[in-house]
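Spend some time on the protein that follows and explain the fold to me:
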Amino acid sequence: MFKSSKQRILILAPHTDDGELGCGGAINKFIEEGHEVYYAAFSACEISVPKHLPSNILIEEVKKATHVLGILPENLLLYNYEVRTFSYNRQAILQDLIDLKNKINPHLVFMPSLTDLHQDHGTIAQEALRAFKTTSILSYELPWNNLSFNTTCFISLSENNISSKVAALAQYESQQHRPYANDEFIRGLARTRGVQISDRYAEVFEVVRWIIA
């Protein structure tokens, strides 16, 4: 996608695993191409973890998952907002996003859709739009949350990219009860998106803002 020069790419994940679900294949592709990928997760959803598991298990799982995709440990940024309370912490989250912009100065940001129905996802998307108003932004697809979704950007994926995405999501053992957390769904969606562009696999994104320098 960016063949000419090394790019800084920032993934905004409201909760651990959102980034892998929405753009895990693209993350792996970018890293294969030599780009610098940062991953910011704003909640480890401790109060939603099944009671028989350690409350911090998602922190360990996101470290394993992002490692599988190739993200450097120092490029994984973890915040401690409580799940489903982001709207009450909107200003603090905006400041965190502005700080990320100043620290990383990314060329491209990935975030949830502005039509995402989850309240935390919506807050991240809305505040990211403010914080990164001079940056190119793509929204990733989470079909179970998207009220509507404009398929305006496709990223072609290799077998290795989709296999890495599947392997990364398999690290979230605490989330395997989710209906979308399985190889069949992940590959099926990627295959569907690939067919739309006459390729084998792809991930699709909404173009929120695209800046050509």
